[in-house]
Amino acid sequence: MKPFRTFIFFLAVLLLLFLVTILFPQQGIGIGGDLRLSFMSLSDLNRNDSIGNAVNVEELLSKSMVTDDPESDAGMDLSSGFGYLEDTIRPLVVPANVDSLKQNLYRIQFAEGGLTLLHSFFRNLDRISSGDMSHTRILHFGDSQIEVDRMTALIRYRMQKHFGGSGTGLVQAIPLYSGSLSYRQEESGEWLRYTYFGNRDSTIKHKSYGIMGAFASVPLPGEEGSPTLSYSFNTARRSGQVKRIRVFLHSYVDSASVVFRVNETYTDTLDNLPGGFSVADFRHFEQVKNLSIAFNLPEGGRIYGISFESEGGLQMDNIAMRGGSGLIFTSMNRATQEAMLDYLSPGLILLQYGGNVVPYMNPDYYRRAFKRQLQFFKEVCPGTPVIVIGPSDMSIRENGQFITYPGLEPIRDALKDAALESGFGFWDLYSAMGGFNSMASFVHADPALATADYVHFTGLGINLVSEMFYNALMVEYNDFYTQNALK
After folding, report:
1. pLDDT tier at 487, thresholds 50, 70, 90
2. pLDDT of residue 10
3. Model pTM?
4. Where are the domains of the chain?
5. What's the CA angle centered on 358, arms 355 and 359, to 5 degrees?
6. 174 Cβ neighbours under 8 A, 6+ residues apart
7. Are strands 395-398 and 29-30 parallel, antiparallel or unpaired?
8. What is the CATH number of domain 167-311?
9. pLDDT in tens, 441-462
């Protein structure tokens, strides 16, 4: 190509890129779920990001002992205890200096007169610690911020370490994402997964998706045998220590059976399972290292979830709904959700949503719609406390700077109002991490606490905010324990 034509070609390409830079929306274009396509602006070439509360983030890091592994005990001094209690009361597992915790703690907010909301859950904790109760449970629902056990893992580990229990709790039979630190999974057979959140398959006419908002379609038994799910557990991790497995399923006909094969040596068959909803509950006398579950459902069926548990103690489930806004519970089949919840018997429910609706949903509509979800949990889990966890800060690029989305605080307020008006609790993650423009400080922290999309946390960052929530929850428990110890 001649030099002049080469020059014209590159000039045309530069002109085209310049036009795209001008015309492309600053907030990017949503392309489904949590994905958003963005294009660099000219001002980005000489960008001066708003660092916001960088000093506060440095203080949080310097006074925290978290690592990017949620089960790490690095730096913990358990002998020093929680610090708020007298020496005669047992210490809590909190890896933070007491004075620093007081300075940085952002407390859970309650409706007027609702300071006793969590007391039923705290009584459960005390009862399992003393042996008067076998187990209790926390259901942690959320969007992509909690995927791959993020946030849940650290809270679960700390609470199980103190109050007892092990295992991951509920997982999907065919997971949405890979990367579990607790186990490896393999499947045999033509399994299919369906979700009620995100892009729903229009060929599924029923709404029986269970409390996880998803199910796996069980293949029919074939010439090569029954469809099987196989697991290898990382028993070095507390979340990988399992002695009880519960399978929440729906068979289309009677006489279904589920075969559990453990550690290559022990086999147990649960047969004559009824048509419709049922739970295959298997308990083993020793720790499960390798597990295969073979499904003989004569006409097929659905798996709503599998729970990996200990015999007793606390279980905590991570129920992530990619792209979800937390508004699906009232539109799914209620009977299936209620049946699962009856078996799970949660002592506390966490609902962590809001981030995915910030760019486009009317806050007043969201408040009303979310209140309907809270009413649903009031009805299906009467007396069970709920804490709503608000969205984290998230940034949009304007004039070469990343600043907090204009609609974030109204959505945060909508969730807070819905929670408090319903008589539940609210924990403000946005304010806890520093408020307006704090996400930029997490992105630019060293080491980084959030990714370059200015929306999602890194592993270290998510564990830091998880620790902040855990500390807030334990301060409430400490107040409860102190009051009851003095009676």
Report:
1. low
2. 63
3. 0.83
4. 52-165+314-487, 167-311
5. 125
6. 187, 191, 192, 193, 216
7. unpaired
8. 2.60.120.1360
9. 889 888 888 999 999 999 989 9
